[in-house]
């Protein structure tokens, strides 16, 4: 590059580069075979140790990720859209079973109570997201305890 610029400053930089290159090259002391072997073995040992450390850290990260996935899976409840889907399933089941508008409120209460008992929640809104399909199947197959 310095030659192609063809300026005094570029040629000075080129000469400094060449002088520095040969100064470093002359000061390099070659290693004996034993020294080279020791250096290679130390480097290899360091790499093996680093690899083992990295593998251990990866294993720990995998373990933590698994724990996080499990916690998330156990704690995420229904979204508003999923809650609506559950509500619609409940309403469909009650309206399908009972034509008398005076009896329906009792069936709604009973079905809501059984969902809370079955899934161990304070409200149908607290059903775990992973249990949505199970809850919908439960509603589809639900039969009231007290038929009047």
Summarize the structure.
By secondary structure, this protein is an all-alpha fold. The chain is built from six helices and no strands. It folds into three domains: 1-30, no CATH class; 32-75; 80-140, no CATH class.
Topology pattern, helix = H, strand = E:
HHHHHH
What is the number of independent domains? 3
Cα end-to-end separation:
98 Å
Beta content comes to under 5%
- Number of DSSP strands? 0
User: Using only CA atoms, what is the Rg?
Assistant: 37 Å
Structural class: mainly alpha
Residue ranges: pLDDT <50 for 5 or more in a row? Answer: none
Please count the helical segments: 6
Plain-language structure description:
This protein is an all-alpha fold. It folds into three domains: about 30 residues, no CATH class; about 45 residues; about 60 residues, no CATH class. It is about 75% helix and about 0% strand. It contains six helices and no strands. Helix 4 crosses helix 5. The longest helix is centred in the middle third of the chain and has 43 residues. The mean pLDDT is about 90.
């Amino acid at each position: 590059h310095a030659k192609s610029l063809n300026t005094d400053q570029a040629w000075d930089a080129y000469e400094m580069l060449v002088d520095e290159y040969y100064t470093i090259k002359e000061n390099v002391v070659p290693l004996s075979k034993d020294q080279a072997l020791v250096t290679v073995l130390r480097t290899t040992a360091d790499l093996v140790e680093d690899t083992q450390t990295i593998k251990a850290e990866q294993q720990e990260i995998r373990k933590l990720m698994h724990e996080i996935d499990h916690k998330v899976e156990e704690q995420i409840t229904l979204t508003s859209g999923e809650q609506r889907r559950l509500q619609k399933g409940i309403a469909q089941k009650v309206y399908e079973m009972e034509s008398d508008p005076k009896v329906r409120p009792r069936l709604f209460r009973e079905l809501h109570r059984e969902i809370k008992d079955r899934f161990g929640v304070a409200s149908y809104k607290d059903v775990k997201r992973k249990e949505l399909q199970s809850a919908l199947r439960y509603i589809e197959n639900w039969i009231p305890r007290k038929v009047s």
